[in-house]
Amino acid sequence: MFPYGFYGQFVMNIYGFDKTSLLNYPGHVAATVFTGGCNMRCPYCHNGELVLNPPAEMKISEEEVLAHLKKRSNVLSGLCITGGEPTLQPDLCDFIEKVRALGYKIKLDTNGLKPNTLGQLLEKGFLDYVAMDIKAGRDNYSRATGINANIDKISESVSILLKSDVEFELRTTVVRGIHTEEDFADIKSWLSEIVGESASRIEHYYLQSYVYRDTVLDKDGAYESFTKEELESFAEILIPIADNVSLRGID
């Protein structure tokens, strides 16, 4: 039995709904739902309200989302589930079942802190693409996430993805004031150890440029973006651990 409870017992906490996107799910025209709540407190997070205090008036019902997906099934092919942290949702399994019954592929965004949930979703064949965040190097993880992060859980989630048949990407939002070159040297060393224990390789690793928004969690933080050249130098460090290392958010 999936550990979230019985069908229909819970309701997904959805606080945002992007009805059409060409960017959120690689290779697909997709809708995106944003779940409320997170088990991290990344100070540079863009979705501060979703993390700390999702506004009740912004809540969107499952029925509204499912009705739109049914209506637009001739245009849309995928649904991206992001947050917040979706794996905290007690109805995630049931919700994905309902969406897949409409013929949609599912992309999950996750921070990797719940490897058991990730593994169970993969085992059930509920996911078609996973995007997982690597927040920083190991020694800097707690600062980057605002919590006493369990690195072993992150490592386990990466290992689960490497052993699965599902396409996935790893990604780091790179923030001046949080990250340094040492982070990427450690990420290379850390992930090399995990890859070395697997028969697979990391196909996609993306470095995402930080962009300030007024919804950022820590509005007083001195956070800025790196230059394109600096991001490229960080990407060079990671090339040995992934088939494709690319930049996002750079004009």
Strand segment tally: 8
For the largest sheet, list the strands in their spatial order: 1-2-3-4-5-6-7-8
Quick one: biggest sheet?
8 strands, mixed
- Low-confidence stretches are 1-9
Give the CA-CA distance, first to last residue: 47 Å
Task: Return the string of H and E elements.
Answer: EEHHEHEHEHHEHEHE
Amount of helix: 25-40%
- SS-based structural class? alpha/beta
**What is the approximate shape?**
globular
Beta fraction of the residues?
Answer: 15-25%
In DSSP terms, counting alpha (H) and pi (I) runs of 4 or more, how many helices? 8
Radius of gyration: 18 Å
List key phrases describing it.
single chain, 251 residues, alpha/beta, eight-stranded mixed β-sheet, 8 strands, globular, disordered N terminus
Describe the structure.
The chain is of the alpha/beta class. It contains 8 helices and 8 strands; from the N terminus they run ββααβαβαβααβαβαβ. The protein has helices at 48-52, 62-71, 92-100, 115-123, 141-145, 151-163, 181-196, 228-238, and strands at 14-21, 30-35, 78-82, 105-110, 129-133, 167-174, 202-209, 242-248. Strands 1-2-3-4-5-6-7-8 form an 8-stranded mixed sheet. Strand 1 and strand 2 form a beta hairpin.
Quick recap:
With about 250 residues, this protein is of the alpha/beta class. The chain is built from eight helices and eight strands; from the N terminus they run ββααβαβαβααβαβαβ. Helix content is about 30%, strand content about 20%.
